[in-house]
Amino acid sequence: MTAERMARWDDMVVVGRIGRPHGIRGQVVVNPETDFPDQRFRTGASFWIRSSQGDEPLTIGSVRFHGGRAVIGFEGFASIEDVERLAGLELRVPEEELTALEPGLFYHHQLVGCVVEMPDGAVVGKVSRIEGGLGGSRLVVDGRDGEILVPLAAEICVDIDVTAKRIRIQPP
Fold first, then answer.
1. Which residues contact 167 (CB under 8 A, 6 or more apart)?
2. What is the pLDDT of residues 76-101, one digit of tens each?
3. What is the value of pTM for the model shown?
4. How far apart are CA 126 and CA 122, in angstroms?
5. CA–CA separation, 66 vs 126, rounded Å?
6. Band of residue 34 on the pLDDT scale cut at 50, 70, 90
């Protein structure tokens, strides 16, 4: 695999994770990691996976939603034996394929790696991940003395600059 190919994988965004096989006809349960599952998981949509066989493109041949998760059949996979190897793999897409967001809204991957600062410029730490969901998300910040949880709320995260990878907070 070339270095260019590796960089392409690293530049892609995770939009779902393949769970267990579903039934005997080559379908899998997919746990969405997107706020737009209906747009992302539709017949004809393409993704990339990385397995022991290398990077592979997958295209959705059939999809239905059950309990908030997608049950997907990928083209070329017709049996449970075909899809067993897919369990646990990430589904990724190039970042430019993501839905454009309104100003002031951000994808989680844009916030990971941002330096979190106090109003005086003192560094709190770096965002390692985002927890929660639509009901209330929080930044998990790796600080000097361990993890710090910061609510992802406009009144606390007063300035978010994903281009500069910086978030200024005003704690209560």
1. 111, 114, 115, 116, 117, 127, 139, 157, 159, 160, 161
2. 999 999 999 999 999 999 988 888 88
3. 0.72
4. 12
5. 36
6. confident
